[in-house]
From TrEMBL:
Protein name per UniProt: ABC transporter ATP-binding protein
GO MF terms, alphabetically ordered: ATP binding; ATP hydrolysis activity
Keywords: ATP-binding, Nucleotide-binding
Matching Gene3D superfamilies: P-loop containing nucleotide triphosphate hydrolases
InterPro entries according to UniProt: AAA+_ATPase, ABC_transporter-like_ATP-bd, P-loop_NTPase
UniProt domain ABC transporter: residue ranges: 3-228
Pfam families per UniProt: ABC_tran
Organism, as annotated: Lentzea alba
Length: 291
């Protein structure tokens, strides 16, 4: 499903959560929606799901989503299970609701996921731990097989084995059933290998939209003799440095040209990729220590 956002603004009284944002997602990819706390991620997802009337436009496959029942049925936004089920509902009831609400629902897959993620069908939603509630949200999101599936911090409270089981299930199901999946997360490195494209927002504004591999190529870790590293990085944007004895590693932002690559070889420096999370921190760094 294609997503087109033009001039989108979301306000809560005097607070602007999304500020004149425009971008397009071609669809059938796994997108990472990255931003610091309070950057506007949840408000943006709510607008994409048609939960609020937009100032600007949100189109899904060319159709406005707000007050469009046909378009909204193509969207699944998972935030908290309390949004979709009462505390007295059993997990089995949640799956029944999914089957009733969504034509694309795959109940056999939902049962497979509950078993994989260790969720008992007989347990009441109110008795689930935070991590189990998040895992149930993942079940709903993936089993919905919605053309636009959005998972907003869906990993919260999950232990590490459960998170990695979720990541494997997400990738395998996407490969079998391609669709547009948007994931907001703070665990950037854990999910980095799954993301084909990233959308970075800050203070309600679009900072960058880029293919994940292209973004990674903008950063380089330079390692070698400290004095050689200092010479090489002079005048470059240095994100951070680490030293051990006479050896230094510096993270630099920006594509290196041929002359710089030649100079690195002459100095005997090792060049390698840097983490997507380090690039994200740099791109959303407050100016002058203030936001």
């Amino acid at each position: 499903m294609r997503v087109d956002v033009q001039g989108l603004t979301v306000r809560y009284g005097s607070v602007t959560a999304v500020d004149d944002m425009s971008f397009s997602l071609s669809g059938n990819k796994i997108y990472g929606l990255l931003g610091r706390n309070g950057s506007g991620k949840t408000s943006l997802m709510s607008a994409l799901a048609g939960y609020r009337k937009p100032a600007g436009s949100v189109l899904l496959d060319g159709e406005p989503v707000f007050e469009n029942a046909a378009a909204m049925r193509q969207v699944c936004l998972v935030r908290h299970m309390s949004d979709a089920a009462g505390k007295g509902d059993k997990v089995s009831h949640v799956l029944e609701y999914g089957a009733a609400w969504r034509d694309t629902w795959d109940n056999a897959y939902a049962l497979e996921l509950t078993d994989l993620l260790g969720i008992s069908l007989k347990t009441k939603v109110g008795a689930l731990s935070l991590g189990q509630g998040s895992a149930l949200g993942v079940v709903v999101g993936l089993a919905s097989r919605s053309p636009l599936t959005m998972l907003d911090e869906s990993h919260v409270g999950m232990d590490t084995p459960t998170r990695y089981a979720f990541y494997d299930a997400l990738l395998n199901d996407f490969m079998a059933h391609p669709r547009t999946i948007i994931i907001s997360t703070h665990l950037i490195e854990e999910l980095a290998s799954l993301l084909e494209e990233v959308v970075i927002i800050d203070s309600g504004r679009l900072v960058l939209q880029e293919e994940a591999d292209v973004l990674r190529s903008r950063g380089t870790e330079v390692t070698g003799n400290a004095s050689d590293v200092d010479e090489f990085t002079l005048g470059l944007t240095v994100l951070g440095e680490k030293s051990l004895g006479r050896t230094k590693a510096a993270m630099v932002y920006g594509t290196l040209d041929d002359s710089q690559l030649i100079r690195a070889r002459q100095l005997g420096l090792e060049l390698g990729p840097i983490a997507l999370q380090d690039l994200f921190v740099h791109l959303t760094e407050p100016v002058g220590g203030k936001r």
